[in-house]
Write a structure and sequence with these properties.
Blueprint lengths: L14 E6 L7 H12 L4 E6 L5 H7 L5 E6 L13 E2 L1 H6 L4 E5 L2 E5 L2 H11 L8 E4 L3 H12 L4 E4 L3 H11 L2 E2 L12 E4 L26 E4 L8 H8 L3 E3 L2 H16 L5 H8 L5
Parallel strand pairs: 1-2, 1-3, 4-6, 7-8, 7-10, 8-9, 10-11, 11-12
Antiparallel strand pairs: 3-5, 5-6
Length: about 280
């Protein structure tokens, strides 16, 4: 396997990365570089577009001295698993990694999406009872299903490809459902863990959906954060339902990743303040 030496560290400044495809939309550099500054560390965080074919070499390059690790986003959270030396219990159970931690030449995969989501839902005042519906069946959806089931929730998985939803629930539990088969009047939490709506204010994972059938106290949580108000959120709000974007989850998972890399527990407000006014 070839190693990507473009990641090499200059001097002693620690570095971390985001590997994604696409990557240009990412707000992670703003957050992590603000955290470096707050912690008094002269580090640097960069987002890099990494096609699937290039992932093995980029991951191998993380073993170089001075590199703290990397975050992973679409489409790498599941495919990275065999490239790592060890997995945290959460990452192994979820079957997806969003954070790689470099320790003395070893690469450890972790998943901070799951606790990041739960912290964000708590911030948003999400109901803690009643069924939760998760839209999607990729790495982010796996983290959501695992976290919600660990919290004792009944979880329904809705995906445009039913077979993928069924495969996910066979591994992690929950029930795969078509949109028409969900008893929406009972669903108190709707989480969009798909990429539908990312960068496209007209796209939605639930076209022609009657949000008023959700209970009045229901929360619609869209992991997408660009645009700041997705079509899913807008239509939910028009129906009088509470809706939030994924900035809270983004900030919480970033805080946990930064702590794993550096040992510094930076307040989540530092990450959120770095995002102010940049998602519209």
């Amino acid at each position: 396997m070839s190693v990507d030496h473009s990641l090499a560290v200059t001097g002693t400044a620690p570095r971390a990365f985001l590997f994604a495809d696409p990557a240009a939309h990412s707000l992670s550099p703003r957050m992590h570089n603000a955290a470096f500054e707050w912690a008094g560390i002269s580090g640097q965080y960069q987002a890099q577009q990494v096609p699937a074919a290039d992932l093995p070499a980029r991951v191998e390059g993380l073993r170089q001295p001075g590199i703290l690790g990397a975050n992973l986003s679409l489409p790498h959270k599941e495919s990275v698993l065999p490239l790592l030396d060890a997995l945290s219990d959460a990452a192994r159970a979820i079957g997806a990694v969003n954070t790689i931690i470099h320790r003395d030449g070893q690469l450890i995969g972790d998943n901070t999406d799951a606790p990041g989501l739960m912290a964000a839902l708590d911030d948003a005042g999400a109901p803690d009872r009643g069924p939760a519906a998760v839209l999607g069946a990729g790495g982010a959806a796996r983290a959501a299903v695992w976290a919600l089931r660990a919290a004792g929730r009944e979880v329904l998985v809705v995906n445009r490809t039913q077979a993928r939803a069924e495969a996910l629930t066979r591994e992690l539990g929950g029930r795969a459902c078509a949109v028409a088969a969900v008893s929406w009047a009972e669903v108190t939490l709707l989480v969009n863990a798909s990429s539908a709506g990312l960068g496209d204010p007209y796209a939605t994972p639930l076209a022609d959906f009657a949000f008023r059938q959700l209970p009045a106290e229901a929360l619609v949580y869209d992991m997408v954060y660009k645009p700041a108000e997705t079509r899913l959120m807008r239509e939910a709000r028009e129906a009088g339902r509470h809706a939030e974007n994924g900035l809270g989850m983004l900030a919480h998972q970033a805080r946990l990743a930064f702590q794993a890399w550096t040992g510094h527990d930076v307040p989540v407000r530092i990450f959120l303040d770095a995002l102010a006014g940049v998602t519209s």
